[in-house]
Design brief:
The chain is α+β, with helices and mostly antiparallel strands. The chain has a domain of 248 residues. The protein is 34% helix and 15% strand. A 7-stranded antiparallel sheet has the order 6-3-2-10-9-1-18. Strands 7-8-11-12-16-17 form a 6-stranded antiparallel sheet. A 3-stranded mixed sheet has the order 13-14-15, with no helix packed on it. It is globular and about 60 Å long.
Amino acid sequence: MQQIIRHRLVSKERLFLKVNGFVLIAAFLLSGCAGSGPVKNSKSTYRNGMVVTASPFASKVGLDILKKGGNAVDAAVAIQFALAVVYPNAGNIGGGGFMVYRAAAGETNTLDFREKAGAAASRDMYLDQSGAPIVDKSLYGPLASGIPGSVAGMVAAHQKYGKLPWAKLVEPAILLARKGFPLSAQQANELNGLAAQLQQLNPDGTALLKTGKWAPQDLLIQEELAGTLEQIRDHGKAGFYEGKVADQLIAEMKRGGGILTKSDLQQYEAVWRKAITGAYKQYQIITMPPPSSGGIALIQLLKSVEPYPLKRWGYQQDSTVQLMVEAERRVYADRATHLGDPDFYQVPTQGLMADQYVKDRMSSFNWSKASLSSAVKAGEPKGKEHEETTHFSIVDQAGNAVSVTTTLNGSYGAVVLVKGAGFLLNNEMDDFSVKPGAPNMYGLIGGEANAIAPGKRMLSSMTPCILEKDGKLFMVVGTPGGSTIITSVFQTILNVVEFDQNMQQAVSNKRFHHQWLPDLVYAEKGAIDSLTRLKLESKGYKIEPRGPMGRVDAILKTKDGSYQGGADPRGDDQWLGW
């Protein structure tokens, strides 16, 4: 088991390229913006709205839509398509995701545009003759791809809540693709590091490859992607799931041994689902139901720590860290057993979030020593019924809020661009339990509830979330980060509500993570000080350093009614307000 975990984590590292760099932006592209982030000690106030995304270009697109009279959903649609151009490692039209929506008047809804397995998918499709997982088979190439959901999701969101004409929302992405945008240092390094794999999996070339090396400020022009976006602009959902683009996608499947068909594309639908909610003190949590595991897990985590005096103990102190780790250990054990696509598996949603169940789960840990994950199994609730993702948060002038997390799964997905169409395929099939009990690329263990089946949505850790305080909008938050998504959102919320940090501080501060298996506490450099580390290690906690966790993008509504942005310094992320 540990050997498989290490193998998959190594594969994950090949997908998630850890590079350093700072965004370099032409000044004219940011002209007219009221503010940008991260900014420390800014005295400016933003009362009309705010967007926070992984890219300054996408943030500018979103803010422009708000200024033109669009609402939060309009801005979300425009940002989603813009990110497919300017943030190709996770922004997408070939992937999927989740949206949490809260109207200014308090109405809530969630949209599931998660990818699905094709009709020809089978339970053992990624196993060898001895029944062992073939790791790369679910990670690279067209066979790793589920049916994309992003375009259907944006169409469904716009039809239900949109205000501006559809074409106006897609047009900014087309211009960015056709005219190009200057790469940041981080993006140039990523593309250079991925060049050999891109060449291997795309022998006819792609816009993401060039002769020589990419450098900061080089223009990335994507003519094929612009053409695909024009089809979507002119024909909506049919512009992607039917016609020319669908033919190109299926041709790519046939070239690379994928299994998706035209019928799979035509039958795909995004699904509106009732939000799941939970209380933490005076805060109401509004988040995503399954097939996201994030919503249930986040509410379980908050309920697990609620009875304890975190504020008095203090930020990242030994008791605080120990409590959070023990809660995470139990929640991720539950995730492995009880979570899956609710259309295929009866998820015990209310049982997992029940106060008494959470209390009982936390009663088994001992303050004097670490629990052993080998001894912590999933509970028995009553009423049984990947790192490169991207997140954006939006609040419009009326106070409507949108929290969207979207993904290709691994960085640059399956590392295959559809020939002639210019968009990347996802590798979301790895988010299924390729073999129940075996880890995926993030080391997460899955069970029967998340086994592969035709037409099934794979389990996700994505955790788009909106918080209310005393019945009013308080925070919009989410992050990429694979298995660390849930714990990053958890920590960010606690940083604000328990440790009195402003939004940027809460997003920027160092993070730690535990996911049941492997039985390690992963910690960013500086997340746990040396004295706290010694105290925890004396109790048996194994703490292992690792690179950046997540890229949280969040908005906080302050007491005076203005908006405060948090854009993660781990990437090129930026908030813009007006």
